[in-house]
Amino acid sequence: MIRKEELNLVTEWDKTFKKSEKVEHSKVTFVNRYGITLAADMYVPKDAKGKLPAIAVSGPFGAVKEQCSGLYAQTMAERGFVTIAFDPSFTGESGGNVRYMASPDINTEDFMAAVDFLSLNDKVDPERIGILGICGWGGMALNTAALDTRIKATAAMTMYDMTRVNAKGYFDSADSEEARFEAKKAMCAQRLEDLRNGEYKLGGGVVDPLPEDAPFFVKDYYDYYKTERGYHARSLNSNGGWNAIGCESFVNQPILQYSNEIRSAVLIVHGEKAHSCYFSKDAYSDMIKNSKYTDNKELVIIPEAVHTDLYDGGEKDYIPFDKLQIFYEKYLYHK
User: Fold this and answer.
1) Which CB contacts under 8 angstroms, 24+ apart, belong to 323-327?
2) What is the pTM of this model?
3) Could you tell me the sign of the dihedral formed by the alpha carbons of 330, 332, 334, 335, in that order?
4) In the predicted model, what is the mean pLDDT of residues 9-18?
5) In this predicted structure, what is the pLDDT of residue 335?
6) Per-residue pLDDT averaged across 202-230, rounded?
7) I need a surface site. Which of 3, 28, 221, 283 has the fewest CB within 10 A?
8) Residue 267: beta bridge partners?
9) Nearest Cα residue to 299 out of 311, 287, 309, 290
10) Residue 147: phi, psi to the nearest 5?
11) Are 133 and 157 in contact (CB under 8 A)?
């Protein structure tokens, strides 16, 4: 028997962005195949008629739907799509009786469960469903597109490959057997420490206070997650972060292994000056290498933009919403 958990959902508007008068907003829930109930904000264009194309949105990794995934979802709903922004398993308002854990498998399933929900929704044409992932969920979106044949179009914004960064470190600076062994050894020791203490130790969110000598990308994260611009009380990155062992399995479970077999359309977007841009460039290169399906794949680099500029637009509205609308209209409006 498939059962939904009764979640305690906030009823007031508590987003980091203003509520649009152009869309109808509601809270919805759905279940993934692991029995975890996920919470989502649903946005529907006002005066919508008939079954519409739909987009499921999530990310960044360690953020909540009240932050930039909700901004993307609401904006795309203003442009004619039914959208949902959801909290992944174990985070935000979603279920999972251990909090702040992550899994390449379960998080890919979260996106597939969102597609399940949209496919069965009366407002949605099940043949016209896309997904959009931000930061670490950009990688998860590509991973889902490689598995879920129902998805017609996928956008990955300012993406991370979370399995790569966990296995190899930032900029692949810890890409050695020795470094991985020490990381795994530390997490195995932490497992026992957590059990002795009867609780999971948090790994820490974005560093606060910000050290004067912090790298720019750390300052970039601080400027979003730790300030009025993007702080949210339920966001892991804004507060205590993932559990110290929360991403343990990522070290040994690489995603995107069959990305060059994705037949559906993919748009990868990244900022030119983002520290993370190498993730998108390499993911795109791997996706089209020896692939029969390159005509509907595209990499767009936004001049001057840094990583978090594609979270909320930054100071210059860097998010290419017009480009996203054209992309989804091309592949979702036409069967």
Assistant:
1) 323/267, 323/269, 324/76, 324/132, 324/155, 324/267, 325/76, 325/79, 325/80, 327/153, 327/155, 327/265, 327/267, 327/298
2) 0.97
3) positive
4) 97
5) 56
6) 95
7) 3
8) 155, 298
9) 287
10) -115, -35
11) yes
Spell out the alpha helix ranges (H) of 36-145. 68-78, 104-119, 136-145
Task: Tell which CATH architecture fits domain 23-161+255-332.
Answer: 3-Layer(aba) Sandwich (3.40)
The two three-digit tokens of residue 185, written as one number: 């050894």
Beta-bridged to residue 37, according to DSSP, are: 31
- The CA dihedral of 90, 92, 94, 96, to the nearest 10 degrees, is 20
Question: Rounded to an integer, what distance in angstroms lies between the CA atom of residue 23 and that of residue 246?
Answer: 36
Domain coordinates of the chain in residue numbers?
A: 23-161+255-332
Please compute the mean of the pLDDT values over residues 27-48 and round it to a whole number.
97
How far are the Cα atoms of 86, 176, 232, 251 from residue 183, in angstroms, in the given order?
A: 31, 11, 30, 9
Tokens representing residue 179 in the block: 């470094």
Q: What is the pLDDT of residues 289-334, one digit of tens each?
A: 999 999 999 999 999 999 999 999 999 999 999 999 999 999 998 6
User: Token digits for 119?
Assistant: 């496919």
Q: What φ, ψ does residue 212 adopt, rounded to 5°? A: -60, -30
